[in-house]
Design goal:
The complex is a heterodimer of chains A (about 170) and B (about 450). Chain A has about 170 residues and is mainly α. Chain A is built from nine helices and no strands. Chain A folds into two domains: about 35 residues; about 120 residues, no CATH class. In chain A, about 65% of the residues lie in helices and about 0% in strands. Chain B is mostly helical. Chain B has a domain of about 140 residues. Classes of the chains: A mainly alpha (about 170), B mainly alpha (about 450). Chains A and B meet through helix 1 of A and helix 11, helix 12, helix 13 and helix 14 of B.
Amino acid sequence: MDSRNRFVVVFLTVLNAFLTLLLCGLVRDTRNDVGDLKQVLATKQDLVNVAAPRLTLFHEEKCTTCHSERRFAGDHNVRGEIERAVAHMGQMPDAPFTQAETAKIHASLEIFRCSQCHDLDQLRRLAIKSPAERMRIIGEMIARPGSRISPDETARILRAFEQMAGF
Amino acid sequence: MRRSVLNVRLSIGTLALAAIAVVGIGLALYRFFSGIGAVSNLNQGYPWGFWIGADVLAGIALAAGGFVVAGLMHMFGGERYHPLVRPTILTAFLGYLLFVVALMVDLGRPWTIWHMIIYWHHESPMFEVGWCVMMYTTILFMEFLPVVFERFRLDRPYAIWMNAAPWVAIALLVLFTFAMTQSVVWVLAIAAVLIAFEWLIRLGIIHRDPRMPTMLLMAGIIFSTLHQSSLGSLFLMVPHKLNHIWYSPILPISFFVSAVAAGVAMVIVESTASAWYFGRKVEEELLKDVGHVLTWAIFFTLALRTTDLVLRGVGTELLVFNTPSIAFWIEALVGLIIPLALLLTPQFATSGRWLLIASLMVITGLVINRMNVAVVGITSTYGATYYPHWIEVAITSGIVAAGVLVYLVICSNFPVFAHEHRRPAETPELAAGLAAHA
């Protein structure tokens, strides 16, 4: 074998040995990763818990100390009235809201409308749906008799979920 | 008739080196007038850049030939390596002096460099590195002195030096121990061991080298070994900034082992290049032996790096296509895998030309490794970016060119190479001095 061929053989042998050792390391790491997996597969609830760890209604912290929740759930709970009420409360000397808090109260009240029929854990499950599926589900709920929600408010509800639950 | 200055031939190469050196030194002076910001792209995110990678980390590692050859010859009995000792010591000595010059350019406030002598910060690896460099440069200077004594036929100072050098080495080691430990117990213990050792040498119970005091060589090996690894320790403090490919708990060991390989490679390159330049015969048989040492050094370095990478589980990061992985593969292929394959191919391993090529690749690989650790592998927490300024490169090139020129001047005027050596006991006065030492 001439020197050049011999060099190529030796070079490939050394390189191959290096790569083989790296591969052994990767196999070992993968085995360790597989060994660390839980015996029970993740449930939908696990995924929900990861995607949306919690969903709280911000207005319950800010508003229900003084006002009964029934006031937010009554027939007057339409868009313009809520906005006027929040703006009015924001001007009160003992209830000053920052701009960010005002936005969060609006978002919280949007979700509060959904929470009249669904508990918060049920609402959190929207986190593992695609945006299109969420829109479809909200559309179906709006279409139900007695929802008292206008179809053009779908986008606003989706934004409220994004703001309050991060999805 | 060929023209020469200080006995150095004026060729195109030496003139080009002189031009690079003049430009580099001029720019280095400009740095002291204009400030570091005017000549470099260093910033808050990258306070260490090209200079630390090239001048400090790579420069120091490439000067490792000094302690490697000293260890091979004097500690492990490889007497046949004797012709390589003086050129290697000279290379190491100049390497360290150039490192100090380069460091003065890189330091933001170079006028405070003496602080480390007075203010002892035991928490900082830089304190240990600084002291080791200071001590080792002194040791290299002392190891080089016989060349000066022989050149000027200073037999009496030579004899005094032979007698005094071991005590100077002991004093430096004891002082270093005190600086590092601040413990009187340790100082007394180290002093007792070293004095006993020197006494046994003088009694003839331990082998005495007639050319170089063993204590001086031991001190050199100790100081250089300590700070070669400590340069790696410096980067243990940036686990959040240094890429996982390079960050490793064994970084100090890795730095030391790779420095040994690069030091051996430097011996081959420097011996071959100087033989060509001075028109001497290349000591091929000797360099082939050094080539065997280099093969083992590369093999050990590669084995250590591979084991480290595998055990740390960094394999996946090497198989993605990004800047750090590309930089690593260039470093590994150029500096370790291809030279090892060359040296394991008998036809190449026995050829002086291929031995030189393999050695140059090892040196290039080491420089790439140190640049990867100091620059490429660093991610700034400030989101800053860094590319070396051309003046940074020019200053480093100038310092290296100046070093090569000084090497040529010294080799042309002093008895550095083996055939120029006088025997130690050539004159009665020196023989008497050496007898007193014995």
